[in-house]
Design goal:
This protein is an alpha/beta fold and about 240 residues long. It has a domain at about 25-160: Rossmann fold (3-Layer(aba) Sandwich), CATH 3.40.50. The protein is built from eight helices and eight strands. Strands 1, 2, 3, 4, 5, 6, 7 and 8 form an eight-stranded mixed sheet that branches. Helix 5 packs across helix 8. It is globular, with a radius of gyration of 17 Å. The two termini are about 30 Å apart. Bound molecules: S-adenosylmethionine. S-adenosylmethionine (SAM) binds near residues 38 and 111.
């Protein structure tokens, strides 16, 4: 698994993107439970890949790929698929999934900020799900600029995450409803305490902030769906 060759050098003021933030997803037990807790679903991954037009030969980079389901499904349809994640445990799990499915995607232990995609092989599609909130907003902007720089002109960027569309004055109500409805019993999924830690310690932001960040990174927003007051997805094209 390539490590140092795909990372940028980092100055002393760089965000510590390899340090865990919020809910612990890096331990072997957390990684083994992740797919069940998150509801990872290869059929949903296939539906997304269809929407994004990923076919044989498409070069796709999934940033913060986690257990690698989307990357493996992309590789199974013949895409040149790259999975990028800071977590060695996640990448080991993802690699084992790929071996079971007899595909060989490219795995990179690297972050949103320091992953350096080769300029002579730009991506057609860059995706990221449930992870950009790990960065504060200043660093989200840097991460989005890095994602835009990986893409060929007209290439596609897809973002799905916890992104708030409720009015700020209704934050208590909406966050309370989300935590109440999403939390599961211990051993059956992410718990109420996990969602509380997400709000307290991670960096989810508002849709209008995200839209400014996307546009300033050089993306044109093609479509946006706030699927709930706490979750949203964006489909973008890089305008180069
Ligand atoms: C909630 S999981 C999402 C995994 C997958 N994208 C999904 O949709 O299921 C968050 C992932 O982000 C990774 N991560 C956290 N900070 C990161 C960073 N700065 N750069 C790349 N990956 C990061 C974690 O290791 C973890 O695998």
């Amino acid at each position: 698994m390539p490590r140092n060759d795909t990372r940028r050098p980092r100055p002393a003021w760089w965000f510590p993107e390899y340090a865990p933030v919020g809910v612990d997803l890096g331990s072997p037990a957390a990684v083994a439970a992740y797919d069940r807790n998150q509801g990872t679903d290869s059929a949903a991954d296939d539906a997304l890949l269809d929407r994004l037009g990923v076919t044989e030969g498409t070069r796709l980079v999934d940033l913060a790929c986690g257990t690698g389901s989307l990357v493996v499904q992309a590789a199974r349809r013949g895409a040149e698929a790259h999975g990028v994640d800071v977590s060695e445990e996640m990448l080991k799990y993802a690699q084992a999934r790929a071996e079971r499915c007899e595909v060989e995607p490219h795995w990179h232990q690297a972050g949103f900020l320091d992953y350096a995609h080769p300029h002579d092989a730009p991506a057609d599609v860059v995706t990221t799900g449930s992870a950009l909130h790990q960065l504060p907003d200043f660093w989200k902007q840097q991460a989005l600029r890095n994602a835009a720089a990986m893409l060929r002109p007209g290439g596609t960027f897809y973002l799905r995450d916890v992104i708030f569309s409720f009015p700020p004055e209704a934050a208590d109500t909406h966050l309370g409803r989300w935590i109440e409805s999403a939390g599961r019993a211990e051993g059956e999924g992410f718990t109420r305490a996990d969602f509380e830690a997400h709000v307290r310690e991670e960096f989810s932001t508002y849709t209008w902030i995200m839209e400014g960040l996307l546009e300033r990174a050089g993306f044109a927003i093609v479509s946006h769906d706030s699927v709930s007051p706490t979750h949203a997805e964006y489909l973008c094209r890089v305008a180069k």
